[in-house]
Every structure is written in structure tokens, then in C-alpha cells.
Amino acid sequence: MDVLNKNVAANLKRIRKAKNMSLDAVSVQTGISKSMLGQIERGQSNPTVAVLGKIVSGLRVKFQDLLGTPPFDTYIVEGDKIAPIKKSKDQYKVFVYFPYEEERSFQIYKIQIYPGCKYATESHGEHTAEYILVTEGELTVQVGDTFHVIKKGNAMRMETDREHAYWNWGQEMLWVDIVFSW
Questions:
Q1: Dihedral of CA 105/111/116/118: which sign?
Q2: Which among 56, 75, 57, 58 has a CA at the least distance from the CA of 66?
Q3: How confident is the prediction for the chain on average, in pLDDT?
């Protein structure tokens, strides 16, 4: 289940319970079958925008109330169940663990880079930074004509207001955790 479906599932159930409504009552209010609502709450269905619109209208909530990160004290992301948001076959994969949220000023990513490959990115704009932790392998970060080598277990912070690239010049898979902030 991707992050968005997980959010919708948790938020629908939370909203329904906060309104003290059964699935039957929500079905009547939204025009969506009880079985479909149950599938959505269990994360077994990928609801269309039209279905989400019916839920929003019937429950009188905002789209963000359904799509946003649920207001939990704890929120577990199962890394082995996350699909990459960017990938290039046999070169790299980028996973987002905590995506953009309006009320937070950071995102958390994991990047996998195959041996002998690189992942390049454009500027992220002024007043942005990345906090990089190498968890497996050895990373070479290129910023302009400057190269920085970061070994496993070490970290780096850099401004991301210019193009930069991540290189894996090693023989093993490279794994990097990145906190992006603005």
C-alpha cells in the first residue's frame, strides 16, 4: 500500500469514528457501498478521485483531511512496502519515507545507487538543504566541480541551491538516507 492509500485508509476510519458513524451510515451519506468503504479503510482499494469526492462531500470534510498524513503520535513506514518515486533501471531508485507536508519543513528520502552509477538532480531553490547519511557503501557527492567522499556511517550537510549529483564509484550497492529541508 502506498503512502497516499495508507493516509486515506487511516483518515477515513478516523473521521468516521470521530463522527460516530457506522460504515452503513457513511454509505448512505456518500452513495458509496459499505463494502467499498470497508476496502478503502483496510487499504485494499485504490479509490478514484470521483470516489474521494463523494466521501469529502458526504462527510463534509476537505480533501486534505483524507489525503494528509494522519495525526498520529506514531506513524510507521514499512520500507519494504514503499514503491520508488523515481528510478532508472539498474542505475538508481529513490524512495520517499515522509513526503511533503504543509505543516512540516522537511522530507525524508532513501536513495539506492547501483555500482558505477549516479543520481543527478537540479537545484532545489534558495534556502534549501540536504542532510545526507550513508548507510551502505561509499558516496561521492558532486557540487559543481567539487567532489566530497562520504563513507558508510558518515554524514554531510549541504545547501541545495545548485545542481548536484550522487555517485557510487564502488563495487557494492550504495544506500543513502536524506533529510531535505527548507
A1: negative
A2: 56
A3: 94
β-sheet with 138-143: strand ranges across: 117-121, 164-168, 138-143, 146-151
Q: Does pTM top 0.90 for this prediction?
A: no
Over residues 137-167, the pLDDT tens digits come to 999 999 999 999 999 999 999 999 999 999 9
Q: Grid coordinates standing for 66?
A: 483524507
In eight-state DSSP terms, residue 137 is S
Angle made by CA atoms 55, 58, 64, in degrees to the nearest 5? 50
Helix (H, G, I), strand (E, B) or coil at 42: coil
CA distances from 62 to 59, 65, 137, 142, 162 (A): 9, 5, 44, 42, 36
Q: What is the pLDDT of residues 165-179, one digit of tens each?
A: 999 999 999 999 999
* Strand pairing class (164-168; 138-143): antiparallel
CA 70 vs CA 4, 27, 31, 79, 143: distances in Å: 11, 22, 24, 18, 36
CA angle (8, 108, 82) in 5-degree steps: 50
Least confident range from 86-90, 100-104, 125-129: namely: 100-104
